[in-house]
C-alpha cells in the first residue's frame, strides 16, 4: 500500500474559500476557558438564526411579509411583519440552544425567562434594526449583546443578571443584511467580520481584525431634527460642512455604523428637546455597538459619559449616542460641551 504525505495544492485550480465562522469560533474557544464551549455554541445559534432572517428578508417582496404587522412594540413604534418574524426566529434559536437563561428583546415588554436552569448567559437583542427600510429594499440589521449571568446557575433570574453595564459584555455583534450579508462580532479580543456565502450556506472570514480609522470625513445624523439639537451639535455639523465632509445617513443604525467603522466617520443620534434622553436603546443597541467600536479603536459616548459605563435602570432605557472615529468624536464633544442645552 502506497502512502503519501498531504501537500497543499499548488496548481491554482481550486482557490481557497477561506475560514468559516464555525472554524474560527472553534479556534478562538481557548480565549474563554470558563465557557466550556457554551459561548461558542451561542454564537453559532445566533449565526443560524441570522441565516434564516436573511432568507426571509430576501423573500420579503415576494411572500407578503413586508409592511406593517398592525401592532406597536413597547416603545410605541409600529411593528413591521419582519420585526415579528425576526423576533420569533432569534428567540426560538436562543431557547433551543440551551446556553441562554434570559432574553431582552426590543420587541418584548418584559424579560423573557427561558426557565433554563443550566443557562449561563443573558442575551439582549434588537432582532431587526431599521425595519422601516424593509419595504424600500434598504439595508437593515440585527444587533446583539451577550452577558454572563451574575447569580448561580440553577437559581431564579434576578435583576442583577439583566441590568449589567456594557463593560460586563462577553460578546456583542451585529448582522447587516445588505448587498451582501455580514456578521461582525467581538469577544473582547478584536473585531472580525464574516460574509455570508449563499451557495455554501456559510459565513466566511472576510474582514479580519477590523480597525477603525482614527479620523474620517463622513458624518451621519438625521438633519431633519436639527432645530431640536444642542447648539453645540449644530455648530459641529456646520463645521463638518465647512470642511466638506460627506453626509451619509441611511436610517438603519447597523448600516450607518458599519460604513463609518470601515471608512472612518461619526454617527450621532443626539438628545433633542423632544427626546432629552436620546432615542436609541442602551441595552441592545448602544452597548453592543460601543463594545465593537472600542475593540476596533473607535469611541462611543452619550456626550458626557462612556456608553459602556452607563448603569441601566430599565430594560428599554434610551441614550444619546456619539460613536465613531476617535478624533471625530473628540472634536464633536468639544463643540457640544461648550454650550448649555435647554429642553424647554
Automatic annotation (TrEMBL):
Where Mg(2+) 1 binds, per the record, is at 106, 126, 128
User: Looking at the UniProt record for this protein, which Gene Ontology cellular component terms does it annotate, in alphabetical order?
Assistant: cytosol
Concerning InterPro entries, the annotation shows: FBPase_C_dom, FBPase_class-1, FBPase_N, FBPtase
List the molecular function annotations (GO) for this entry: fructose 1,6-bisphosphate 1-phosphatase activity; magnesium ion binding
Catalytic activity annotation = beta-D-fructose 1,6-bisphosphate + H2O = beta-D-fructose 6-phosphate + phosphate
Pathway, per record:
Carbohydrate biosynthesis
| Biological process terms in GO annotation | fructose 1,6-bisphosphate metabolic process; fructose 6-phosphate metabolic process; fructose metabolic process; gluconeogenesis; sucrose biosynthetic process
Give the family, as the similarity comment puts it: Belongs to the FBPase class 1 family.
Assembly description? Homotetramer.
Protein's name in the database: Fructose-1,6-bisphosphatase class 1
Amino acid at each position: 500500500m502506497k502512502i503519501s504525505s498531504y501537500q497543499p495544492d499548488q496548481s491554482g485550480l481550486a482557490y481557497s474559500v477561506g475560514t468559516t465562522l464555525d472554524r474560527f469560533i472553534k479556534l478562538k474557544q481557548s480565549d474563554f476557558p470558563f465557557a466550556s464551549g457554551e459561548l461558542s455554541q451561542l454564537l453559532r445559534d445566533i449565526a443560524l438564526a441570522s441565516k434564516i432572517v436573511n432568507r426571509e428578508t430576501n423573500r420579503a417582496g415576494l411572500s407578503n411579509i413586508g409592511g406593517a404587522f398592525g401592532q406597536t412594540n413597547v416603545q410605541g413604534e409600529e411593528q413591521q411583519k419582519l420585526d415579528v418574524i425576526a423576533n420569533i426566529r432569534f428567540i426560538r434559536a436562543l431557547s433551543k440552544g440551551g446556553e441562554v437563561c434570559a432574553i431582552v428583546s426590543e420587541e418584548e415588554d418584559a424579560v423573557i425567562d427561558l426557565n433554563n436552569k443550566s443557562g449561563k448567559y443573558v442575551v439582549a437583542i434588537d432582532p431587526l434594526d431599521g425595519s422601516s427600510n424593509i419595504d424600500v429594499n434598504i439595508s437593515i440589521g440585527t444587533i446583539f449583546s451577550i452577558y454572563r449571568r451574575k447569580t448561580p446557575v440553577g437559581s431564579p433570574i434576578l435583576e442583577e443578571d439583566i441590568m449589567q453595564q456594557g463593560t460586563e459584555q462577553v460578546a456583542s455583534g451585529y448582522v447587516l443584511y445588505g448587498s451582501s450579508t455580514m456578521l461582525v462580532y467581538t469577544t473582547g479580543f478584536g473585531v472580525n467580520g464574516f460574509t455570508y456565502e449563499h451557495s455554501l450556506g456559510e459565513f466566511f472570514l472576510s474582514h479580519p481584525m477590523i480597525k477603525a480609522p482614527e479620523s474620517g470625513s463622513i458624518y451621519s445624523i438625521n438633519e431633519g431634527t436639527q432645530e431640536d439639537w444642542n447648539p453645540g451639535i449644530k455648530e459641529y455639523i456646520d463645521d463638518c460642512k465647512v470642511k466638506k465632509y460627506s453626509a451619509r445617513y441611511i436610517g438603519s443604525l447597523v448600516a450607518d455604523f458599519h460604513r463609518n467603522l470601515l471608512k472612518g466617520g461619526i454617527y450621532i443620534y443626539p438628545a433633542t428637546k423632544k427626546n432629552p434622553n436620546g432615542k436609541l436603546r442602551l441595552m441592545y443597541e448602544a452597548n453592543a455597538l460601543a463594545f465593537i467600536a472600542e475593540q476596533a479603536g473607535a469611541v462611543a459616548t452619550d456626550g458626557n459619559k462612556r456608553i459602556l459605563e452607563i448603569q441601566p435602570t430599565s430594560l428599554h432605557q434610551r441614550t444619546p449616542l456619539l460613536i465613531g472615529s476617535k478624533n471625530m468624536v473628540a472634536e464633536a464633544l468639544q463643540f457640544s460641551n461648550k454650550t448649555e442645552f435647554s429642553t424647554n
